[in-house]
Amino acid sequence: MKMAHTMIRVRDLDASLAFYTEFIGLRELRRKAIGNEATLVFLSDAGESYAIELTCNHDGRDYEPGNQFGHLAFMVPDLAPVVAEIERRGWWYRTSRPDGPAKYVFVHDPDGYDVEILEEREPG
């Protein structure tokens, strides 16, 4: 077996798409409407081996991040510009080392889900 996708429910599809495409750098693979019930949008990185499914139900229900869900994680070659962008946008975040060079940062997406961004490390 191989991983296919992770589904998260979102309140505001446009805000979530902006976060995951403009900030994280994913691209939309496909979109599917389930009648008037919901819109599904699948996003992935350049490798396209794994996807995130954003599900926006149209019935007005509200969501809280569930305690069964941990976080999504992404890797970048250099974390410093990511932290600078997060600070520029005024978003809440926490790092692995608030007093020095961080190895990772957690930021909340528009629905409050934790998103971890890790700095790639050289093997060894």
Which outline best applies? Answer: globular
Order of adjacent strands in the largest pleated sheet: 1-4-3-2
What's the end-to-end separation, in Å? 28 Å
Q: Which CATH class of the largest domain applies here?
A: Alpha Beta
Mean pLDDT: 87
Biggest sheet: strands, sense, closure? 4 strands, mixed
CATH topology of the largest domain: 2,3-Dihydroxybiphenyl 1,2-Dioxygenase, domain 1
Rg estimate, integer Å: 15 Å
> Which percent range describes the beta-strand content?
35-45%
Keyword list:
124 residues; alpha/beta; 2,3-Dihydroxybiphenyl 1,2-Dioxygenase, domain 1; 2 domains; 4-stranded mixed beta sheet; 8 strands; 18% helix
